[in-house]
Write a structure and sequence with these properties.
The protein is mainly alpha-helical. It is built from seven helices and no strands. It has helices spanning 6-28, 33-36, 44-57, 63-68, 73-77, 84-100, 105-122.
C-alpha cells in the first residue's frame, strides 16, 4: 500500500473547500478576531491564493508557483504582528476548517505537525500582546 499525499486524499476540490472553510471560520469565530483583523474585508482573493499554495504544499501541482512565483512565508508575513495569540488563532481556524470538510483522522494527523511548524515559523513577535495590525495580508 502506497502512502498518499494530503493532495491525493483531498484532491483539488477538497483543497479549495479547505481554504474556503479556513477563511469562513476565521470570519465567523470571535476567538479569531486578532488574525482576522490582518486581512482584507473581502476574503475571496486570499481564499484562492491559499488554495493555490496548499495545492503545491500538500503534494499537488505547483499552482501557486505558476501564478505568483516563489514565496517565502516568513517574508510575506513579516509586515504583520504575529505573536503566539495570532499563531494559535490561525491554528484554531485550520483545525476547525479540517473538521468542517470532514477530513479523516489520518489526514488531520498527517497535517498536525507541519501546520504547527508553519505557524511557528511565521510567528515574529514575542513581546507583550498589542492591538491587531491594521495592515492587510495579501491585498492583491
Amino acid at each position: 500500500m502506497t502512502a498518499q499525499t494530503p493532495y491525493e486524499i483531498l484532491g483539488d476540490a477538497g483543497i479549495k473547500r479547505l481554504a474556503s472553510a479556513f477563511y469562513d471560520v476565521m470570519d465567523e469565530l470571535p476567538q479569531a478576531a486578532k488574525v482576522r483583523a490582518m486581512h482584507a474585508e473581502n476574503l475571496d482573493d486570499i481564499k484562492r491564493k491559499l488554495a493555490a499554495y496548499l495545492t503545491g504544499w500538500m503534494g499537488g501541482p505547483p499552482v501557486y508557483l505558476a501564478a505568483y512565483g516563489t514565496v517565502c512565508l516568513t517574508d510575506v508575513h513579516k509586515p504583520y504582528l504575529i505573536d503566539a495569540a495570532a499563531r494559535d488563532q490561525w491554528l484554531l481556524c485550520m483545525r476547525e476548517a479540517l473538521q468542517r470538510i470532514d477530513a479523516g483522522e489520518e489526514l488531520v494527523s498527517m497535517l498536525e505537525e507541519p501546520m504547527q511548524r508553519i505557524a511557528d515559523a511565521v510567528k515574529n513577535y514575542d513581546g507583550e500582546p498589542q492591538a491587531p495590525s491594521t495592515r492587510l495580508i495579501a491585498r492583491g
